[in-house]
Design goal:
Layout lengths: L4 E4 L5 H10 L1 E4 L5 H11 L3 E6 L7 H6 L5 E4 L9 H7 L2 E3 L6 H16 L2 H9 L15 E2 L17 H6 L3 H7 L23 E2 L7 E5 L3 H12 L3 E5 L10 E2 L3 H6 L3 E4 L13 H7 L4 E4 L8 H9 L5 E4 L10 H4 L4 E3 L8 H19 L10
Parallel strand pairs: 1-2, 1-3, 3-4, 4-5, 8-9, 8-11, 9-10, 11-12, 12-13, 13-14
Antiparallel strand pairs: 6-7
Helix pairs in contact: 1-14, 5-9
Bound molecules: (2R)-2,3-dihydroxypropanoic acid (DGY).
């Protein structure tokens, strides 16, 4: 495919870039100024038949219109929400993505985020790095109390006082039963006065094993997450567009009900008109003060404004996020919270998976040039 003109819209993966530049005629257009973009397109657009992008830089209608010779778009991702698929259909432009090979990576990360958030691993890591760990008592694992958070200055403001009474007020019958379980019994914040002189806010952290986990979107990744959760003895339920009766998991047609019954809610759906802001205030309130939200889907699946409010007002227990609505921008308020784990969209970034994704992009381009069926067509 030596003569294939390929436009790489951002630095994606070194191996992919090297292979593209070895096998094709490679053009790079990374974050250009409007002027530079114009000059570049004037000089090169007629030669560009293929575009390679990712989940951040896709191909919107403007980009597609600016490339009159464009015949195929390849995205280094399973998600295609940054590509104007309708426009591609109209113009007969083919689109491929990289499904399946990244499923394990994202599912691993979802479980990692759930545990990391529930057990506040980043706060504990920060405690150790800050030099505050002077004796084992500082980090009282034996009593299941991590009394480090306010005392050691890791959290800037104390979390809201919560009592088991307030927790119980949330519930209907099902919920009250859940609260009665041993893992919930000790869940309450201690007021500063309870730990005289120490100014300590103690938080007994919940166990992950055996938790009720709700999955939003039981596609390839959601199913892989559910499989992993079996090993932790979790009770898995899910919400998706349609019920999957063979899955063996409890289906909720109403996402608020799913959130209400879940200790951890994991978002693993794609971004569509139906799933934009599917995690809204009602869902967050149903998830509740002890609930943890994990998002490995798309940032805009979650109403970030509402999430920030729910976290800062103590209406939701924590969040583990690999994706954000306006990447790489992250809501500033999240940065000051210790009950969140924030990752820069690294769901698929293991070396093994990146290599397979790159090879899949290359194989699709080879097939396209040779007029063979595409391996992973979207359009
Ligand atoms: C994808 O490939 O679409 C995902 O965003 C990876 O995290």
């Amino acid at each position: 495919m030596n003569s294939l003109g390929v436009l790489l819209t951002c630095p994606i993966d070194t191996y992919l870039e090297e292979e593209l530049s070895r096998r094709c005629k490679l053009f790079r257009l990374w974050e250009p100024s409007p002027e530079k973009r114009k000059d570049f397109l004037r000089a090169n657009a007629p030669e560009i038949r293929a575009l390679v992008g990712n989940t951040v830089v896709g191909a919107d209608a403007g980009m597609i219109d600016d490339l009159p010779a464009l015949e195929i778009i390849a995205t280094f991702s399973v998600g295609t929400d940054k590509i104007d698929l309708e426009k591609c259909r109209e113009k007969g432009i083919r689109v491929i993505n990289t499904p399946d090979c990244l499923t394990d990576d994202v599912a691993d990360l979802a479980v990692g985020l759930a545990i990391g958030t529930l057990r506040r691993l980043c706060a504990a890591d920060g405690f150790l790095r800050s030099g505050a760990w002077k004796s084992n008592g500082d980090y009282n694992l034996c009593s299941k109390f991590l009394n480090i958070i306010v005392a050691k200055g890791i959290q800037s403001s104390p979390p809201r006082w919560r009592s088991s009474e307030a927790v119980l007020k949330r519930g209907n019958e099902e919920h009250r039963e859940r609260e009665g379980r041993e893992i919930y019994a000790p869940l309450m914040w201690l007021r500063e006065s309870d730990r005289e002189g120490e100014g300590i806010c103690a938080l007994p952290l919940p166990l992950f094993s055996g938790k009720q986990v709700g999955i939003v979107g039981l596609g390839r990744i959601g199913s892989a997450i559910a499989n992993r959760l079996q090993a932790f003895g979790c009770q898995v339920s899910y919400h998706s567009r349609t019920e999957k009766p063979l899955s063996g998991y409890k289906y909720y047609s109403n996402i608020v009900d799913l959130a209400f019954s879940s200790d951890v809610l994991i978002v693993s759906c794609s971004l569509t008109d139906e799933t934009r802001y599917i995690i809204n205030r009602d869902v967050l309130d149903a998830l509740g003060q002890q609930g943890v939200l994990v998002n490995v889907g798309r940032g805009a699946n979650v109403d970030e404004r509402e999430l920030v409010l729910a976290l800062t007002e103590g209406r939701v227990g924590g969040a583990g996020l690999d994706v954000f609505e306006h990447e790489p921008d992250v809501p500033k308020q999240l940065l000051g919270l210790e009950n969140v784990v924030l990752l820069p969209h690294v769901g698929t970034s293991t070396s093994e998976t990146c290599k397979i994704m790159a090879d899949l992009v290359l194989a699709n381009l080879e097939a396209f040039v040779q007029n063979k069926p595409l391996l992973t067509p979207v359009v």
